[in-house]
Amino acid sequence: MYEQQNRFRAHGNKNREYSCRKPILDAMLRLGINQAEVVRLCRSYGAPLGIKFSPSDLSAYIREKHQPKGDKAYVLCRVLHITERKLYGYKKPYRRL
Fold it and tell me: How many helices (H) and strands (E) does the chain have?
């Protein structure tokens, strides 16, 4: 377990948690949808943008095997109605100086 948590460690940033599992599951519970519906919505939203989203992608994010990157993170955030900062597990909101 320690190795798995250490893999996602934010290099020196103490405001970040270790994975995107909790924000995804919280958003799914809040919206009342399951993984299959999230994948279907991600596919329909990402298709015009040329972004392919598979069930194994979402499963890997929830099982903490991978972190969503770039376009897939954008699509996932739009579908789940969360910000990318929240998806990546930052505790505090972003503030501009």
Answer: 6, 0
Q: Decide if 52 is inside a domain.
A: yes
Distance in angstroms (rounded) separating the CA atoms of residues 14 and 4 = 17
pLDDT at 73 over 60: yes
* Structural domain contains residue 64: yes
CATH number of the CATH domain containing 75: 1.10.260.40
Query: Is 17 within the bounds of a domain?
Result: yes
CA distance 60 to 64: 6
5-38 burial code (b ≥16 CB/10 A, e <16): eeebeeeeeeebbbbbeebbeebbeeeeeeeeeb
Q: Is residue 41 part of a domain?
A: yes
Mean pLDDT of 29-51: 93
pTM: 0.73
